[in-house]
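Ticket #4471: structure export looks truncated?
Reporter: QA, pipeline team
Priority: medium

Steps to reproduce: submit the single chain below to the structure queue and open the exported record.
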Amino acid sequence: MATSLTPDTISQIFIMKFSIPLALLAVFFLASCAEEPPPPPPHHRPSAYAPPQPQEYPPQQQPFNPNGPVQPVAPPPPVVASSPPPAVAPPTKVAKGDYPYGIPVPGKPHLVESPYSPGKYIDVEGFPPGTEVKDPYTDKIFLVP
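Actual output as written to the record:
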């Protein structure tokens, strides 16, 4: 008994095989088109902090003694109008005479031995005599001989 495939039987087979997947596809498509409700607004509680109290700057240094008795804080001394602070002296610069001279290397006119790191040679070509140079090994200053 041979069955013949007619257009009607082909369409029935197609509908039976693909009806459930097509229905699921349609449901997912329609569900993805629906708008989501907006998220609920966050509920914030106002802070319950005490209002800030004016404090002196810088704050008073407190001693640290975890085992000692509790000491009451003394009120700050009254502020008295004072004269302007004395002028700050500029930082003292070391005079040239206070730096040692490098030691010339015999037969090498542009090399000197550092007074701070013996055995280490430093090229001072282009620096006139008496110029302050920094020893790259110790970062200390010495003078070109």
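Status: closed, not a bug. The export was complete when the record was re-opened. Leaving a note from the reviewer for reference: The helical segments are 7-33.
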